[in-house]
Amino acid sequence: MEQEFASTLLDAAVNEFAKLPGIGRKTALRLVLHILRQDVQQAHLLGEAIIKLREEVKYCRVCHNISEHDVCEVCSNPMRDHSVICVVENVKDVMSIENTRSHNGVYHVLGGLISPMDGVGPGDIEIETLAERVAQGGVKEVILALSATMEGDTTAFYIFRRLAPTGVKVSVIARGVQVGNEIEYTDELTLGRSIMNRTPFNDTFSAK
Predict the structure, then answer these.
(1) Does residue 85 fall inside a structural domain?
(2) For every residue of the chain, which 3-state class applies, written as one string?
(3) pTM
(4) Beta bridge partners of 115
(5) pLDDT tens digit string along 35-76?
(6) pLDDT tens track for 7-41
(7) Considering its fold, how many domains does the chain have in total?
(8) What is the CATH number of the domain that holds 48?
(9) Is the same domain home to 27 and 95?
(10) In this structure, is residue 1 part of a structural domain?
């Protein structure tokens, strides 16, 4: 049974914080009480930052990374190698790879992985927009930097088959990222080496 508080305002605030991933009601209460101890101006700054984040941050129309503009800083940077696209599951993976400073190309954020068990198919993530980018020409290599999980391998195999007619080089990061690991939890050194030591993708990859 959920605990109810004497103050309906406190209860409402705790309920909202508890909706955040990984936040239970005890943690939500601790956060709310912390905010109550702060100056009112600090609470206003927090609220304004959240509202501004939600209203002004958008997704890049090219790669689907988060951005304050229609095209993100990576895609609009002429110093990046636009002939090499690194495909990742989500925005957090872009941040992880950027921290390694091992990739000077651009990105493509899928927004998820193929997972039939969860009802997620190829049409539910940004695979077709990737195929369209490659079809436009100028792309020499597509790096599949996906988690070493069954869902990651399934998605990588589907993308490989989808891009095969284009003749573009498709590679996969080296398995320094252990099987079962997700990109965002891999240390920067291992992740950086995995990208630099990437290998060509082939039909036998997912069968191993």
Answers:
(1) yes
(2) CCCCCCCHHHHHHHHHHCCCCCCCHHHHHHHHHHHHHCCHHHHHHHHHHHHHHHHHCEECCCCCCEECCCCCCCCCCCCCEEEEEEEECCHHHHHHHHHHCCCCEEEEECCCCCEHHHCECHHHCCCHHHHHHHHCCCCCEEEECCCCCHHHHHHHHHHHHHHHHHCCEEEECCCCCCCCCCHHHCCHHHHHHHHHCCEECCCCHHHC
(3) 0.77
(4) 120
(5) 999 999 999 999 999 999 998 899 999 999 999 999 999 999
(6) 889 999 999 999 999 999 999 999 999 999 999 99
(7) 2
(8) 1.10.8.420
(9) no
(10) no
Q: Are strands 81-88 and 105-109 parallel, antiparallel or unpaired?
A: parallel
CB atoms within 10 A of CB 175: 13
Q: Domain span at residue 191?
A: 78-207
Residue with tokens 């959920």: 2
Residue 105 lies in a domain: yes
Residue with structure tokens 């995995």? 194
**Domain shared by 115 and 52, yes or no:** no
Please, what's the b/e burial string for 7-38 (b: 16 or more CB within 10 A of its CB; e: otherwise)? eeeebebbeebbeeeeeeeeebbebbeeeeee
Q: Write down the residue that tokens 């800083």 correspond to.
A: 73
State the CATH number of the domain containing residue 126: 3.40.1360.10
Q: How far is it, in rounded angstroms, from Cα 22 to Cα 159?
A: 31
